[in-house]
Amino acid sequence: MDRRRAAGAPLAVVMSSPAVVLFACMFAAQGSLLVLSPILPDVAADLGVSTALAAQLRTLSGAVAGMAALWLGMWSRPRALRQMLLAGTTLLVVSTAASAAAPNFVTLAVAQVILGFGLAIVLSGGLAAAGQWAPDDAARTLSWALVGQPAAWIVGMPLVGAVAEQGWRYAWLALPFAASVVALGLLALRGPDAVPQTPADEPSVWQEPGTRGWAIGELLAYGGWAGTLVFAGALFVESYATTSTVVGLILAAAAIAYLPGNFLARRFVDRQARVMLLGGAVASAGGVAAFGAVDAGPGWSLALLAALAVIAGARTIAGSSLGLALAPRCRLQAMSVRTAAVQGGYLMGSAVGGLALASGGYPALGVALAALYLAAAVPHAGAVVHRRATQVVDPTAPSGLGR
Predict the structure, then answer these.
(1) What is the DSSP letter of 398?
(2) Of 67, 225, 239, 300, which has the maximum CB count within 10 A?
(3) Which helix (H) or strand (E) element contains residue 144?
(4) Does residue 36 sit in helix, strand or coil?
(5) How many CA atoms lie within 13 A of 324 on its CB side?
(6) Is 389 exposed, middle or buried (0-12, 13-18, 19+ CB in 10 A)?
(7) Which has the closest alpha carbon to 321: 146, 70, 65?
């Protein structure tokens, strides 16, 4: 929707606009992912399991989401994205309500499996819808959709912390359940999608030139960023004796720093997505290596973490935009691959970072994560060099999404 027209539009029209609806969907999905982090000890104690076992619930939902996203990407048929998102947010509502009411650990684990399927649908369909619902304003719509995820961190972490004092079950209801209900309601305000005019022989995303290198780059880059997030709190606690309350504020500050990177990058993503991904990967490699190696005080480490978050915000929209541009005939497949890459990146970053930390402390952690970032830069470096050498411009690239 044109922003000037939106100012005088009825509230229902504004609330059903692509940017608002997709922001709400991504907010609900991220809220469902993060709610376990601050309540893990309470969940473990109440259900009679160890904290380490309770932590595997996040691994379970992430693994299911990654596998489901890959399956969704292979389901290559025309589809209405609104109906998909309605199904996905319904699964989020059901799974978060079941999590809040779970009488035992097994039931809670089953709820996380359902949650994983809902996440795959919402995260994949939500980003694909940015290109389909707003083809003339795709970069701005995609930007607002992606902002929903850090917004869930900024709003959700303090909310979950406050509500969890009354019981961990209330945390599930206050953030992911409520957010999913809101997203479901906003989706209901939108009229049905037109039947997609997609050919019956829609190609596989892997047949589109450049998508394999893009997918590998996304997986490795998300591994680097996920590893940074997973171990950042521990670095502040063990290096600077920072309290858990302050660590929560530090992570919220990192989420806030993500926002300007996203908003600034969307101005240049039309033609510079690939260059932004290359530069962002190299800069992140240097930043995370310094983050792990240089013990110059909490202010220094916080500044580095904030800088890495700014780059991550820019890299996220650039990576999503590039995927949509490389595969305009199979956007849902491309965004399903991206969703699988994000979840796989979290598993990779946690594993690589954990091994490095155990073997060489935080300097080794920084080097290992920097290696993931540098590896992520390789396919983009090759594509940039090839493009500049041949000076060929692809006329099929849609406006608003740069290659």
Answers:
(1) P
(2) 225
(3) helix 138-163
(4) helix
(5) 29
(6) exposed
(7) 146
CB atoms within 10 A of CB 201: 6
Of 136, 129, 146, 60, give the one whose Cα is nearest residue 95: 60
Q: Which tokens hold the place of 163?
A: 């509500």
Q: How far is CA 384 from CA 262, 270, 378, 387, in A?
A: 22, 15, 10, 5
Residue 276 tokens, joined? 């932004």
Q: Residue for token digits 């709820």?
A: 111
pTM: 0.79
Residue 346 to residue 122: CA distance in whole angstroms: 18
Return the ∠ at Cα 230 (arms to 265 and 141), rounded to 5°. 25
Find the helix or strand (DSSP H, E) in which 64 lies.
helix 51-74
Residue 167 backbone zone (phi > 0: left; psi -120 to 50: alpha; other: beta): left
Q: Of 301, 300, 310, nearest to 254 (Cα)?
A: 310
